[in-house]
Each structure stands twice: as C-alpha cells, then as structure tokens.
Amino acid sequence: MHHAVIAATGLYTPPETLSNEELVETFNAYVERFNAAHAEAIAAGEVTALAPSSPEFIVKASGIKSRHVIDKSGLIDPDIMRPVIPERGNDELSVLAEMAVIAARQAIEAWGKPASQIGAVLCAASNMQRAYPAMAIEVQQALGIDGFAFDMNVACSSATFGIKTAADYVATGSARAVLMVNPEICSGHLNFRDRDSHFIFGDVATAVIVERAEEAPEHGGWDILGTRLKTQFSNNIRNNFGFLNRAAPEGDKITDDRTDKLFVQEGRKVFREVVPMVSDMIMEHAHDLKLDPTQLKRMWLHQANINMNDFIARKVLGRDPTPEENVIILDEYANTSSAGSIIAFHTAQAGFQPGDTGLICSFGAGYSAGTVFVRKR
Predict the structure, then answer these.
(1) Separation between Cα atoms, residue 339 and residue 94, nearest integer Å
(2) What is the domain partition of the chain in residue ranges?
(3) Which of 87, 158, 168, 345 is a Cys-bridge partner for 300, taking CB atoms 3.0 to 4.6 Å apart?
(4) How far, in Å, CA of 81 to CA of 191, rounded?
(5) What is the residue-level pLDDT of the chain in tens, covering all 377 positions?
(6) Cβ distance 164 to 227 under 8 Å?
(7) Any idea which architecture 223-376 has in CATH?
(8) Distance between CA atoms of 247 and 131, rounded to whole angstroms?
C-alpha cells in the first residue's frame, strides 16, 4: 500500500462578479412587477405578495457579499434571471470542462511534473453539464492524459469524496497520481426568483492532484492522515432536474413552472440537522486518528453559510475560532458547492510549518459529509 499526499491545487475564477446590491436590484424589480401584476389576487387573499430583499439581509443570513459568475448579463435582467450560456457544438470543449482544464493546468504547473504522469481523472461536482460522455474523460483528453476518468456527484461533498477516492487509487496502486477537478456553474441551478436562496451560489472550478508520497518532494505538499465519508438521506436540500422531467405535463399543456427542478432547501432544518452531524463526525474522526481537534491549525470547511461554519468551528475547537483558523471565502465567492472547501484550502495555506495539521471538510445534500485530515510535509 502506498501513502497518498495532496501535491498541488488549482483555481479558476470567472472574471465577472455580481454584488449583493446588483442581485437585490434585479430581484426587487421582479418582485415589484409580480406584485403589480397580481394586485387584485393579492388583495383578495388568493396570492401571497412577494417580499423584497436587501443586501443587509443577505449578509446577515449567509455572510455573502458578492459572487463570481460565468454570465452576469442574464442574472441582472428581470426578464431573464438566469445565466445566458450559448450552447456549444459537440466538437468544442464544454463550458464546465473548459473551466476544469484551466484549474487543472494551474495545479499541474504548481506540481511541476508532466500531465502524462497522471493516471486517472475524477470530475467531482454537483452540477453536471450532461449525463454522458463524462466530463472527466473530456478533461482527460484535453490534457493529454492516459489511464481512466469518470464523473462523480455527491453534491457539495463531492470534493472530499473525490479526494478519498483519489487517495484510495494511489494507495492500491491503481494510479501513481490522480487529478480531481470540481467545476461548478451553480448559478445554472439556482432559482433567482426565490428570496430565501437567490443569493446563495457562485461559479468556479478547482483542481487537486493526489500522488504517492514516495514520489512527492520531501518538503511541500500535504500528507493525507485520514479520510472519512458519511451519507444520510434527506429531502431538505434537493434538485429534481433530470432527463425524465424536462417539462411538466398538465393535461394537454406543457407548463414552464418547474421551480422544483431548481435548487430547493429547507435552510433551518439543514442547519439543525447537518451542523451537529458534521461536528460529531470531525471529532470522532480526529479521535480515531489520535489527533486533538482543538489543536488544528486551520479548518477549510465547505463554504455554505458563515453561521454554520462558525458553529462547527466553535464546537470542534471548543472556543471561538480566529479568522486564520476558520477560513471564510464566502464573502467573495459565495457558496460554490463542491469547490468551496478547496478554494479555502488553495487560498489559505500560509503560515504552516512541517507537522502542522489541518482539516478539509465538506457537507451538503444527501445529506453527505467528508473529512480529510492533512499534515504539512
């Protein structure tokens, strides 16, 4: 068996940004139009008037101030309120694969070895562009990698599930090095007409290279001390879209009211149920690894909600965490699903000395959760 290390990471950030103020301006314009169009029904009690949003509400509820998006034009148009992404031909690199390739090339450059030494590619993400062929195989071809590739989806936990899978392939000798990518166009599955969730997501792509310890430099990179996964079924975070329900039939008519085919969340239930599950999982895993969780130098948690992250960090550390201990990138990137914990890990590695330990942790729909304890080499 081979020991696995995280050798390098990469990050692709779309150039367009969308602030809370811009998002709220568009949402409130939609609310004003809706309430005006349904004024009589609202007065009669047949329709519930929509409430406007505000930047202050968004920051208090989530900690999010802005987000990067692949297309801004459609998101700030009250007549559209979705990203406008032109469809590409079958002979062109798909949008998500293109994002993943950019992040992967950055990781490969940081790694300092040729892509030909990678034996497997995993595309672990929430929002797949298509059912098949696998985007991972598309990325594999674009980078000139032999071996095998496949897609995997465990919602927001996909990256830690992907690291676990990559580490297992390295440990068993299936591949000397594995590339794991997390391209996310989360704006594509978000209901921008829902006050409680229209602000949550952003778009991004991350990449992680896992390789054999004996082939990694003695200094640099991260020893993977242990990985653990957990799933527990819940409907409280859901997206029902799929090829079986492209349109909803009503008699002889086809309706375009398919809000349940977009992101749906019972936020309060998620908080009550996921936070203790993840906190307990982290502490139990640390105990089994003979690590003191209160001594973790840094936690790179899934970037879902600042209140969830603060609660988990306090429970694990036994005190209020410092900003250096509990990394938050929500204010700039928003929730980027599978990529969130990897963005935090990629951007906040300064100050570590050999032997210092940290935690990469993700959690989300399923419910699902993954922990990856790492030690600076």
Answers:
(1) 18
(2) 223-376
(3) 345
(4) 8
(5) 899 999 999 999 999 999 999 999 999 999 999 999 999 999 999 999 999 999 999 999 999 999 999 999 999 999 999 999 999 999 999 999 999 999 999 999 999 999 999 999 999 999 888 889 999 999 999 999 999 999 999 999 999 999 999 999 999 999 999 999 999 999 999 999 999 999 999 999 999 999 999 988 877 899 999 999 999 999 888 888 877 776 555 544 434 456 677 888 887 888 889 999 999 999 999 999 999 999 999 999 999 999 999 999 999 999 999 999 999 999 999 999 999 999 999 999 999 999 999 999 999 998 999 999 999 99
(6) yes
(7) 3-Layer(aba) Sandwich (3.40)
(8) 17
User: Does residue 156 have an active-site annotation?
Assistant: yes
Angle at 125 between CA 120 and CA 131, to 5 degrees: 85
DSSP states of 270-329 as a string? HHHHHHHHHHHHHHHHHHHTT--GGG-SEEEE--S-HHHHHHHHHHHHSSPPPTTTB---
Three-state secondary-structure class, residue 177: strand
| Token pair for 207 | 């990449």
Interaxial angle between packed helices 55-62 and 20-37, expressed in degrees from 0 to 180 and rounded to the nearest 10? 120
Residues 6+ apart with CB under 8 A from 331: 63, 64, 65, 66
pTM for the whole structure:
0.93
* Whether 100 contacts 184, CB under 8 Å: no
Helix (H, G, I), strand (E, B) or coil at 63: coil
